[in-house]
Amino acid sequence: MSTRLATGAALVLLVACARIEPPPGGPPDTAPPRLESIAPEPLAVVPGFDGEVEFRFSEVISEGTTANLGTGMGDLERLVVLSPTTRVPEVRWRRDRITVRPREGWRPNTVYRVELLPGVSDLRNNRGVEVGGVVTFSTGGPIPTDTLRGRAWDWTTGRPAIGALVEAALLPDTLVYRFVTDSAGGFAAGPLPPGTYHVTAALDPERDRRRTGREAFDSVSVAIAEADSLELWLFPHDTTAPRLAELAVADSMAIRLRFSQMLDPGQPLDSLSVSLRALPDSAPVAVRGVVTPAEFDSLARARAAAPADTAAAGDSIPRPVDTARVAADSARAAADSARKPAAAAPMPSRLPLSDRLVLRTEAPLVTGRSYVVEIRGIRNASGVAGNATGVIEVRAPERPAAPPGAPAVSPPSDSTAAPVKK
After folding, report:
1. From the DSSP assignment, how many helices (H) and strands (E) are in the chain?
2. Could you report the average pLDDT of every consecutive run of 10 residues in the chain (422 residues)?
């Protein structure tokens, strides 16, 4: 029995001695994996190529927690952009390598572009936020020299569209080259074959490198030789006219309007486009005009800054605000702001999108009455126009809550305010 125990102990000792482990107390590994090589060689011409594009790293990398099933949602699939193709490529993890090939196979006489985006991590979860690579090669024919450059903007927010999917379809063959915008919304993809491209940029919130048509997008057709500074403005393309989604009292002579969609910022709106009727008899109410929230706030600031000597002189006639001067001042301020250099990207060259307007009346609104608002020919950002109608009830302002222990205050006996409808 003792001989067996001694033999077992010796085997355990030998196994323990054969196990190689890092010495205890050493510094932790915090360095991300390094991309050491890409095959084929960049700008290579490989006729009849039937292998895999390979990205080799300095150490074993993580395959992620979500498998690559050809849906574009795998952890490694999200990092690979293969062109030209419209399908999710085959992306495989091979310990210290990532290999890529199109599911339909390599086409002859085609220029391919394979991009590995930053984000590969090692087994200790050290992520290479700047580790990425791209290779362009040809399966026959010379390597082109043209580059497609531009910038994509999220028109709804007025900010660069970071991580947006850009698809450039070479016409008339409709070979689709795909790229992803950088942290400034820019893209510079090349070399690409010469010709005319239909370029589409779309927000890609799921980062699956596929465009569904429901995302905000913009498109343009351009010859690649002239595509040095494309500007794409991404916004939702609605096929129905905007509706009034919310109405709220801004002050005694203004109503804030919120629509169901973003509006065309260049459409002209005046008092003839708007009607306001008081219920229940539908009596027309004079409308001064419709302005943007920024213009309304500018007018309010101008009224607040007006000299107070009018009231001191006992003049009961209010002085009209010079709206033309206020608008000109606002335009000059916007132009001065646009001329200032931006840190990351140039300022947008289009008017901002908004889903809000402010209706101004000629006379104060009556508390307790309801009004019907109609905007005729209102256009969304896609150019679809229609009439929008809504009803608002002007309620008396609520009294602020009394502090604990304060005596209750009764309303004056001669109050003529109409009761608030529940």
Report:
1. 4, 23
2. 50 44 62 92 93 95 88 89 89 95 93 92 85 90 90 93 92 86 90 91 84 85 84 92 95 95 89 90 93 90 69 45 52 49 54 93 94 95 94 83 62 45 43
Q: Which is it for the CA torsion 154, 155, 160, 164, positive or negative?
A: positive
Please give the Cα distance from 223 to 369 (Å, whole number). Answer: 59
| Collapsed DSSP state (helix, strand, coil) of residue 99 | strand
- Of the candidates 135, 161, 33, which has an alpha carbon nearest to the alpha carbon of residue 80? 135
CB neighbours of residue 357 within 10 Å: 22
d(CA 131, CA 127): 8
Distances (CA, A) of 97 to 90, 133, 183, 303, 372: 14, 13, 26, 67, 66
- According to DSSP, the residues that pair with 94 across neighbouring strands are 97
Distance CA 340, CA 331 (A): 15
Crossing angle between the packed helical segments 293-304 and 323-339, to the nearest 10 degrees: 110
Instruction: Return the DSSP state at 138.
Output: E
Cα→Cα distances 332→177, 294, 336, 339, 345, Å: 42, 14, 6, 11, 21
241, amino acid identity = A
Cα 92 to Cα 116: distance, rounded to the nearest angstrom: 13
Residue found by looking up tokens 């016409």 in the block: 171
Query: Residues 224, 145: contact at Cβ < 8 Å?
Result: no
> Which tokens sit at 395?
């309620």
Specify whether the CB–CB gap between 66 and 197 falls below 8 A. Answer: no
Q: Which two tokens stand for residue 195?
A: 């010709």
Closest CA to 334 of 323, 349, 344, 322: 349
SS3 of the chain: helix, strand, coil, percent, to 5 = 15, 35, 50
Backbone angles phi, psi at 288, to 5 degrees: -80, -35
**Straight-line distance from the first to the last Cα atom of the chain, in angstroms, rounded to the nearest whole number:** 93
**Could you tell me the two tokens for 20?**
């190689």
Decide if 153 contacts 234 (C-beta within 8 A). Answer: yes
Contact between residue 55 and residue 80 where contact means Cβ atoms under 8 Å apart: no
Asked if residue 229 lies in contact with residue 149, where contact means CB atoms within 8 angstroms, the answer is: yes
